[in-house]
Amino acid sequence: MTDESTAYGAGSARTVSVDEAEALVRGICFKTGPPRLLGVELEWLVHDLHDPTRPVEPARLAAAADRLQKLPLRSLLTVEPGGQIEFSSQPTDSLTACVEEVAADLALARAELRDIGLFLSGYGKEPWTHPGRVVVTRRYDAMEVFYNSWNEAGSTIMCRTASVQVCLDAGHEEPGPLGFGRRWRLAHLLGAVLNAAFANSPLHKGRPTGWRSTRQATYARMDPGRTLAPAEDMEPRAAWTQYALDAEVMFVRGENGPWEPRRGLALREWLRTGEPRPATVGDVLYHLTTLFPPIRPRGHLELRMIDAQPGEDGWMVPLAVTVALFDDPSAAETAYRTVKALADTAAGEPTPRNPLWRRAARDGLSDPELHAAAVVCFAAAREALPRLGASPRILAAVDEFIGRYVVRGRCPADDLLDLVAERPVDTEAGS
Known about the structure:
By secondary structure, this protein is of the alpha+beta class. It is built from 17 helices and eleven strands. The protein is 44% helix and 11% strand. Mean pLDDT is 94; it is low at 1-8 and 426-431.
């Protein structure tokens, strides 16, 4: 989630018409060319080193964030509403370079947190407690009011979830395995396989929710105008532009005082009427930061469906596998042929509320079709990784994940479910 201080440069205060806004959004959503750059955004929960099932007090979270923000990191470090810590890598042209830079930042951060009795915890949703918001900004104040006018799902996403978000170039303008149209379609089908394989959020207050990825199931319950995928039967630029202008404005920013939450005001209507004030270029660009579909086009592709992963190196696996399946032509072709067979399962309903994505979030790789697809896709990725120059550390992490989970039809969520089945945890005292 982008901080309220985001700046857009000269011209952002200029008012715009509907046609101008459509041209603006259409022009920036897919920046095409040979796939070259990649990146990753890692969100982490912060847990007590000695008792991870107990809540961390807001003062300790604030102290942790303050210490981490003083470290000499290459990644951009931000603090999410519930105190989660996010590391956003610099764009790199090498998978190994990206991994090495982020791993070095994480090593610094882990040492700093260990010194104050905390650690970075890789779960897609807080499994033990039910933390509230600790970061106060006008953006988050207004977002919380807007979300709560729907249900509690938005507050859960803001304060209690964490993810691995993989960022990839949009691809070539021309058709083919590396064309942006193919990659856009691939992302919406392969995304279900990635969500199933890396599902890691099955608990609420220590008890099973019935979902392997409660985080993804929660996203599916939020405002559909900003969390469902755009129309998948339209040309991608046209689909995203229509989606963005038809989505409700979450709030109207002001120079002073609180930002005004809105319900029922689509961006298109605001642009047309000029009420409650004329919309500007900056308003249109800021509105785009409040849209959270599973795949968000930001010039590049941002894949948002992967839960945070356990262990020090667990985050490397979704990054490496996803990069291989998109940027290696042979692996991309194998992945596309494999997941295209799943398209009928979606039954024409939008991602992520269609049956395919619901099965992924609920069942993980215990679903036979998703398991079969994962076996093929992970094998193709593993074969491609040496061609992409993946380091031995990356290959070892991928091999360990394939053997522990993919081959056996399991996902990280199953480990947590086994844990609570064998040794129930009483978390009510800390909830």
